[in-house]
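hey can u check if this looks right to u? its 592 residues, i copy pasted from the old doc so theres a chance i mangled smth
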Amino acid sequence: MDPEEQPPSPEDDEFEPRLYQLNARDQVIQGYEQEGKRVFLVLLPTGMGKTLISTLVIEMLLERGILDAEEKVLFMVQDRKLKHQLYEMAKTYGLAEYGHLFLLDDQRTLPAKMSRKHADFARFLFATPILLMNAVTGKTPRVDKATLVKVKVVVIDEILDIFAQSYGQLRSREETIAFIVEKYGNGRSFKEIIRDLKEELEARDTIDYEIDEQALEDHVIREFSSRNFRLNKRFEPILHLLGLLDPNSDRIVIGLTASLSQEAKVALLRKTFGGDEAVAEIRPVGDDFEDYRPAYRLRRIRVFDEWVTQMDGMISGIKGGLMKTLNQAYKHVTGREKIPPDRILLFITDLLAKKTMQKKLLEALGGDEQRKVAFLASASAYLLMTVARQRLLESTFKTFYKFTTTITNKVLLANQDFQALKAAIEQRRAEGGEDEKEKKLLYWLNRFTSNGESVLVMCRFVDMTKHLMDAAISLGIPSANVHGRMSGSMQHAQIKAFKAGKVKVLFASERLIEKGTDLPEADVGIYYGTTVSLERYEQSLGRIRSSRQRIKTFYTISYDQTVEDEKSLKRDTMFLQLIGTKLDTIIEIEED
């Protein structure tokens, strides 16, 4: 093996157990041996080594003889690339000393018969829930059911995201306000929290207008309106197959999660697995805990382009006009005057997709089919403009041009503002259609990598990961990309190249990378645009393992005086004032 490809040894700092990790291991062992627990939920902020804790627990179970020679350990993770990462980490840490490791490959490189033999022979199995289910119940099984009978320990990474499925309506406004005050108020009322946020936002140099307090209040409530949850229908079959829902099961479940504030999901897990008698929450403590807590320096890179600002404003105007029509449709269907800000896209999606809602609208219109069609066309037009804005701000001009010029929606084609928008786009194309944000990103990437720094860039669109990678490579910047359309093995290979330092920049689709993929090799993180959800933001910030011992910087690059600029500022400020206050993790917000 090439020395550059040699994985780190367990003696390296990343694999040397810390005091709080050993404490978590001891809590699990004590809970099992002395308290009779069988399900353990390890709650730990992103990037603090939850997977290593599970490995430490397994090692202790093996050394104490709780796992006998015939019993197996199953690692399950929702993400295909993470399956490979877990496999590599377990192998590197030394679990192979206790038995064979088997990675269930989604590419089916092994014949089914050989796959069954490997799985039966292995001590440690690695799979995604759906892949494992298909491997056992498919026409040509690649894992025997008898093999799963031998599983004694099941490790489930990001268990709350796999386990819980949202359904039904959001919590009421009153319940959400009570939740915010309890968790983040620190003695403040909800109105005081909003006023503090408003003052913080208006103190920024980039804000030269008064923040609408009601709009900010709606935004905060939308962010924290937790949904109701039930057992994930896709995940439930594998739980039954493994016998984990049997109250008399003797299998040990180790669930890992960084979703520290998801009380509803935790409650569902406790109920499903048998309540307090069976389930223990593991919250590690130790003298070194604070040293390794996540800590970040947040900065914003603003891109100045008056044309983009103008287009963003025109799109806002078009969407504002469409909202008048959509509110009429909403009143016909619900009897209420105005669509709540956090329900607009949901209402539009339901109106376009659900026949029952369309039938209700038609009845309210007295059977006027033509008016119903007009309402549906307006709903479709609103969605098209939402996508157009995403293409404008977070994709290429070429993509934005292609999308807008192929729109055939009759409501938009009859809209004078939309026609003016198209004319401005055609003029920009004639002038060359340069992407100022892309140019600014490449400037910073060249600057970072010239200083020897490695960079993780997160994008909303899959196609942008390849486009930006190609642009960076053309400038001589060693780069790779990773996204959900790749196979698990290809994702793993690209990430491995970045970790090994063979490429200096990794472009990643944000949904793929934000959970579970630890990239401590990254010195800098960049958002090419903005992610609004605070939960998702916290998860993705943790990917580069920024801690109090080594604070790293996360940049958001966005167009000045646009919706994404406003959203990124709100997101960072809310993170600082709410999540940051609770976790004490944010060092500062600076602007470049």
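The radius of gyration is 26 Å.
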